[in-house]
Each structure stands twice: as C-alpha cells, then as structure tokens.
Specification:
Elements (H helix, E strand, L loop, with lengths): L1 E6 L2 E8 L2 E11 L5 E9 L13 E9 L4 E8 L8 E8 L3 H11 L3
C-alpha cells in the first residue's frame, strides 16, 4: 500500500515497499507520443532487517524504456549500497491495463 502525488512528470510515493516502509521517486521523460523513459529510485528497509549482516537501507534504481505502449526494456541496480548483495539487472516487460483487457475478455467468456 502506497500513497503518492504526481507533479507533472515526477511522482513521489511513500508506504509499504516489499514488505517494509519506504519512499520512492519516479521520473518520466517522454519522447514521442506515449513513449519514454521511466526512472525510479526506491529506498526501504532502512535498518537492513531483511538481510544478514547488513544494516544499511535497501536502495534500488530502475529504468524502463517504453518501446511501445505495453512493451518495455528494464535495467538498473539493486541494493547498491549493500556490503554483500549488490547486483545489476537487465530485462524486458509487458504491461497492460483495464482498457487492454476488454479486447481479450470476449474471447474467453462464453456467449
């Protein structure tokens, strides 16, 4: 559960992030119509209770490059201030909303 406020292309969020209290900042940089880069910085688990021998907060930086409305590439750094658990990640994703589902539901629901 998180609460947030949108200011043009910046969103500030606070609440539960991966089971602990935390804060997040999202920055959307648009290019072309409905495409862009979403950069997210998260800070949570401030005392390192979810990790062994590490009392530093969990910091995560994620970047998503939206190629189409629903398809994106992702990369970033996870737990980059940790003593032992820092990592780099790379991936791809697909997102959809309620408007996208209305095209698929009639195919699955019997008439």
């Amino acid at each position: 559960m998180q609460f947030g406020k949108l200011f043009n292309y910046v969103t500030v969020r606070a609440g539960l992030i991966e089971g602990t209290g935390g804060f997040a900042l999202d920055l959307f940089v648009p290019f072309r119509e409905r495409h862009g880069v979403l950069s997210t910085f998260k800070m949570y688990d401030f005392r390192g209770k979810n990790r062994l021998n590490d009392e530093r907060p969990h910091l995560k930086w994620i970047n998503r490059i939206f190629l189409y409305n629903s398809i994106y590439l992702a990369f970033g750094f996870d737990d980059f201030v940790s003593k032992n658990d820092r990592s780099i990640f790379l991936g791809a994703g697909f997102r959809f909303g309620d408007d996208d589902l209305k095209y698929f539901l009639p195919n699955f629901v019997g008439t």
